[in-house]
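User:
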Amino acid sequence: MSKKRSTKPPPAVKTSNAKRPTAHQQRQQLDHAGQIAAIQRSQAVIEFELDGTIIHANENFLKCVGYTLDEIKGRRHSEFVDEAIRNSDHYRDFWQRLNRGEDITGDFRRIAKGGREIYIHGVYSPILDSAGKPFKIVKFATDVTMARLQNADYEGQVAAIGRVQAVVEFGLDGVIVNANQNFLQAMGYGLDEIKGKHHSLFVDPTEASSAAYRQFWLDLAAGRQQTGRFRRLGKGGKEVWIEGSYFPILDYASRPFKVVKYATDITQLKQVESSLENTVHSLSSAAQELTSVSQQMAANSEETASQASVVSAAAEQVAGISAPSPAPPKRWERASRRLPRAPTRPPVWQPLPSKWQRRPMQPSPSWEQAAPKSAM
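Assistant: Predicted structure:
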């Protein structure tokens, strides 16, 4: 008996519902994995539970804080903050926000191994599950400690300059952006009175409309510094002299984006200099006048001397005409002139007698012998 052939179709082969990823999806997965690897190589990365317990940290983060992974794994994030922050409401609110799924970005002061202070710039990012709920926190960060120290140094220097000098900031068009108290005090204005106004507020209208003034601001906009003494007008038109420099401030591309002026009020010094100049001018005029008078007196003296010479010559001429000629000497006068004269008695040096022995000095016999008989 022959078997009847079944007419039922063979059972269908069951296939899996899972779909193999497409080439696009594979590339996307590789891209994501590559980006995560790049972030791990370039940034400090640390992972936390929602309660702040440390799960993992990469080598960059460990190097930044000075710990090994075994030293911090399983410990709390609060190990990296000081006690004041740890017990603050701000710190508790910080973790509540993260648990709600909020990202928090900024610069954070942290305590590394040994109490060393560091600054980290980064973002705390909650990682969400398929239901959109956070299940862990990942922080991506960069150590900015050296940059913060350098900025603090720069800020300290700028603050020191601002305490001793007048400082005012302008846009490249000359509009006032800000000014410190020293500048406001020198000019007599409040900040609200000058902010948003043009620098020409401080200069004479004639100067403000000049070509030199326009070129002044064109040079600053081109990055050329201007230094010197400047006459300015304060509130109410009072004259103010300022010595200082206008510095164009450059951006990262070395392009000017604003102008800052650092200056010193030298109004009193200028007044002293002006007074000295007037004194010197007066002394110079007096000296010139004295020189002129002296020259005139010298000329008058020369004229008087010349006239005296003429009178003297005339007097001598008159005296020569009227004076009689001398009479010839008589015979006995001529004979007496031929007689020899007695020699001059030499000085006799003898010691003075004492008080009780003084007596008249006797003439020297040698002198009597030396005298000629004719003289006696």
